[in-house]
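Page 37, continued from 36.
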């Protein structure tokens, strides 16, 4: 399948990996929107949260918390974002959790 995050997950496209286990991979976003901007993706292709397995979703959130801690933003605070579909601003159709931190983040989003 011609999916950029599948290619990152199988090593075909390089990434700045920060965490990996049997179910998922976390790597730095190529266009960081904050000092810490990490993407957590399942290794198995899944288009969005609408199609995701409950156990995978739970695991992605647990890993998001882990990478936040390991990258030094847990104490000050951070944000996990799952953009979904056109109105949600999803540009890559492979489920991913953004972990954003390292500065004060505005709310609500635009
Ligand atoms: P979305 O807009 O779908 O919520 O988020 C997709 C994210 O993937 C964007 O923040 C974008 O910068 C990031 N991205 C797109 N292509 C690549 C890539 O090849 N490598 C990395 N590391 N990030 C990417
Ligand atoms: Zn994929």
């Amino acid at each position: 399948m011609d999916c950029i995050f599948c290619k990152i997950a199988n090593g075909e496209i390089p990434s700045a990996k920060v965490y990996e286990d049997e179910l998922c991979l976390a790597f730095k976003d190529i266009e960081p929107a904050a000092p810490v901007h990490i993407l957590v993706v399942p290794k198995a292709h899944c288009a969005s949260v609408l199609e995701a397995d409950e156990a995978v979703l739970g695991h992605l959130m647990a890993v998001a918390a882990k990478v936040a801690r390991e990258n030094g933003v847990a104490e000050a605070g951070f944000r996990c974002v799952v953009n979904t579909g056109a109105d949600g601003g999803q540009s890559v159709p492979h489920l991913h959790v953004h972990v954003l931190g390292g500065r004060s983040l505005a709310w609500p989003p635009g």
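The chain is about 25% helix and 25% strand. Flag for discussion at group meeting. Residues 4, 13, 15, 27-31, 39, 83, 89-92 surround guanosine-5'-monophosphate (ligand 1) (CB under 6 Å).
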